[in-house]
Amino acid sequence: MSTAALTPDLQAPTGNLDITVSRAELLRELTAAQSVVERKTTIPILSNFLFEVSDEGVLTITATDLDQSLKTSCPARVKKSGACTVPARKLYDYIKLLPEGDISIKLQDNHWVQIRAGRSNTKMVGMARANFPAVPEFPGVGVFKINAANLRNMISKTIFAISNEESRYTLNGALLVLKAESMAMVATDGHRLAHIEKTGENMEVSGEKKTLIPRKALAELMSLLNNSDAETLEFADDDQTLFFRIGGRVLTSRKLTGQFPNYEAVLPRDNTKFVIVRSEDLMGSIQRVAQFADERSGAIKIRLEQNELKLSAQSTDAGESEDIIETPYNYDPLVVGFNSSYLVDFLKATGNTGEVRLEFKDAQSAGQMRPEDGNEEVKYRYILMPMRI
């Protein structure tokens, strides 16, 4: 944790803030900001929202856990500008329980904050504004515009393949690759890799720009994109920080350091044996058979023979199970093992509709799965290392 990040912003207003806001508008912004607040923190000020009000009639709300910050705002009728900090969780839970209407917020002595709404009158114990860490400002240069729907789709297709192992920190995020006419995202945990590329984009990028985005930031971005009707977002970065601006909200995230692995080297080149099946059929078969897989490995066996795909699993505790899907297949027979939950993750990400293509080389080589949807602009593939069974 850097000490610089805790340096307070001494130029901030500190007057005795006194404002009135609409409950609906305040609650909407608190909902966006509260997920960034640390639940269990050793630094008490990080459990608070920072409220800042200028004379322009805007309440700015900031939340941070030092790794991430979110800054958002809502209109306010200002009697007195100023700043204060309020316990985030307590305030959010309380505002949710108030009826619709106006809320007045007033800073009192000793950092207490009074909140009045109708006949409700509450005082919360705040903390000194001066203790709240400075949050990086959105850069004025080097800003990229990204299509919001495309980015949301890319995150949903890759985030599940990010590694959970803290020790492999360069795999704790997804790599965003921007080029002049395309953008791509890739994530891997060493056992599987999800890669999606969208062509037909118009990016002001010379060469390519690669950025590693932490999982936590991707989850936060996904939530912001799901709750915004903005068609584009702005993305920028500096040496330490990533910045995303969606509508009036700015998310910052500390960068992951280190080199993302050379994923292009593991993309299969000669998986010439393939089979096409309905996603729904494959999902049903996997889920049934996986009930009987070894609990630790989750391994199931895929056997491809003349015009049929056979899935099976067995374990000494549970018994054994087999499912057959009839489908055109005219190559040499093949038997390969995979982690069933990894297969399910992919099918869930594709929406479990339409058809998927499973491509293989042999039992020892990585398998590749992709949706058979004929979409030329969006290429999505999922590479899976086989298991010994």
Automatic annotation (TrEMBL):
Location of the protein in the cell: Cytoplasm
Chief location bin: cytoplasm
Occurrences of domain DNA polymerase III beta sliding clamp N-terminal (ranges): 18-136
Domain (DNA polymerase III beta sliding clamp central) ranges: 146-262
Coiled coil stretches, renumbered: none
Alphabetical keyword list: Cytoplasm, DNA replication, DNA-binding, DNA-directed DNA polymerase, Nucleotidyltransferase, Transferase
Subunit structure, as described in the record: Forms a ring-shaped head-to-tail homodimer around DNA.
Protein name per Swiss-Prot or TrEMBL: Beta sliding clamp
Taxonomic placement: Bacteria, Pseudomonadati, Acidobacteriota, Terriglobia, Terriglobales
Gene: dnaN
